[in-house]
Amino acid sequence: MRMHVPTSKAGFSKLAPLDVFWAITAPIIALALRDPNFLDARDLTEGIPASYLYVLVTIICAIPAFLVFRISDGMNHLFSVHDAFAVCGAVAATVASSSLFLFVLTRLDGVPRSTPLIYGLVLGAGLIVDRAIARVYHQKLNAHKAKRCALATPQDLRRIVLIGADRFSALTIKLLEHQRPRTTQVVAALDPRDALIGRAIAGVKIVGLVEDFEAIVDEYAVHGIEIDEVWLSDDVTSLSDDTLERVSEQCGERGLKFTRISEALNLAPSIVRASGDWRSDADDAMRLGGYFKLKRVIELVGAGALLLALMPLTLIAAYLVLIDVGAPIIFWQQRIGQNGRRFLLYKFRTYHAPYDRQGRKIPEDQRLSRIGRAIRAARLDEIPQLLNVLIGDMSLIGPRPLLPHDQPSDPRRRLLARPGITGWAQLNGGTIVTADEKDALDIWYIHHASLWLDIKIVVDTFLFALQGGEKVNDRILQQAMRWRDENATVTRFVQAEQHAPETLLEARSRS
Questions:
Q1: Which helix (H) or strand (E) holds 149?
Q2: Whole-structure pTM value
Q3: Strand partners, 338
């Protein structure tokens, strides 16, 4: 999957020449397939024909869609399923936007209703086929290089026996085959399933059961192939501890290294970061009330309605962000949500990237412009969080989602509920109060949440956005602090400790 990267490191999306070629030619080919007469240019003296207008509009709609879905970012010779999804998304967006625009403008008069479908098929096929051709060409080129490199490959390769015939093992074999110069070779695979014996995984034969390990290693030695290491796939779960222990002992007797693939490839973490276990075995006082089930339904309807109602403001805010800080216009951060589950929180960007194109740090006082300050003051930057509400990461009203280092010392109670776009703590102190005071306000809200309280918070939020500026309500703050102290519950809270990597058998026994 495509990973999010920080704004200053994301770069700008580009357009590949072949993608531009298909954006221009796909509507022409679609019209020609439907009826070649639509491309007759004799009527140009009477104005632009509907077919020519269709070509123009689809090209105009295709270019932004390609940039938004970043279909030209991937390398064609490494074309993957994720890239195919991006291409399909760009094609669907192009067809939908061009059809909608033309329907509003001309009701698609003069263009057959089947043309958008043909156009989508042609555009999608063209984008995918040229990537498939590039991938096949480079695969043949790499195969030719591999044959030449095989002659220079040293004969004292490290010989590996793999245990477990699964996707992880197959990818490991392919990875080793692409190493230049090659140092490691998988000579055989073992698996606990009888039905797989005699079959092959990524070109490597599955020669026997795991219980046959000792006999297989000895037989390979008779034929002059000395096994150096035994790798266990991380996905293997059907092996018993006794079988694993027996294989480990047999490897020890022969001086063979026995390890997991992830450890052999240095994919296992060397240190586990200290992190809190947000789950709790608390009593009823630590559980959400029944109102939160109704609250979720209300907020789904409300978030959808707000997205439609705020569409004009959303477009204005997006345009202001684009001319102020440039693309991308969406900013993201990973936050901690309900029960400690991490999610990506989205906002409109209001700050310039912390580093310029030369990698030099930009002073903090220069990153926020007047436009960005106005967007933040009006809370327009938080409109994209309505999407977080719809997909279930957030609520309209609840504790604000905080970064890990901003969490209070024991955040379990405030993490019982979904985080909110606005909330009780935000209205009664916001960034002015301490983390402990904010925690008390959030806990008070969770245990006193009701429809009328949520309505009050919504109204106060709109008034707050109009008035601007944060202020502390001492009476409400003291009430929340006193309530939390009087209703505190003592529950188990586990803190993970840093530790060194485990041995294979220790990790198996602990899991």
A1: helix 115-151
A2: 0.54
A3: none
Structure tokens belonging to residue 417? 């509920």
Q: Which residue has the higher pLDDT, 15 or 276?
A: 15
Q: What digits encode the pLDDT tens for the residues 193-221?
A: 998 998 999 889 999 999 999 999 999 88
Q: What angle do CA 443, 298, 283 make, to 5 degrees?
A: 35
> Residue 381: CB partners within 8 Å, gap ≥ 6?
317, 331, 347, 348, 349, 350, 375
* pLDDT tens, residue by residue, 277-294: 455 444 444 567 778 888
Q: What is the largest CA-CA distance in the chain?
A: 91
**What is the structure's pLDDT at 4?**
56
User: Rounded to whole angstroms, what are the CA distances from 46 to 42, 49, 102?
Assistant: 9, 8, 19
What string of DSSP letters covers 458-507? HHHHHHHHHH------HHHHHHHHHHHHHT-------BPPP-PPPPHHHH
Distances (CA, A) of 81 to 125, 128, 150, 374: 15, 11, 30, 41
Q: Is the dihedral of CA 288, 289, 295, 300 positive or negative?
A: positive
Phi then psi dihedrals of residue 429, to 5 deg: 150, -45
Contacts of 43 (CB under 8 A, 6+ apart): 49
Q: How confident is the model at residue 432 (pLDDT cuts 50, 70, 90)?
A: confident
Domain boundaries, the chain: 7-148, 153-264, 284-486
Distance between CA atoms of 275 and 280, rounded to whole angstroms? Answer: 14
CATH class of 153-264: alpha beta
DSSP state of 219: H
- Cα gap 180→161, rounded to integer Å: 21
Q: Where are any strands of DSSP class E within 251-390? A: 257-260, 330-336, 342-348
Q: What is the DSSP letter of 292?
A: H
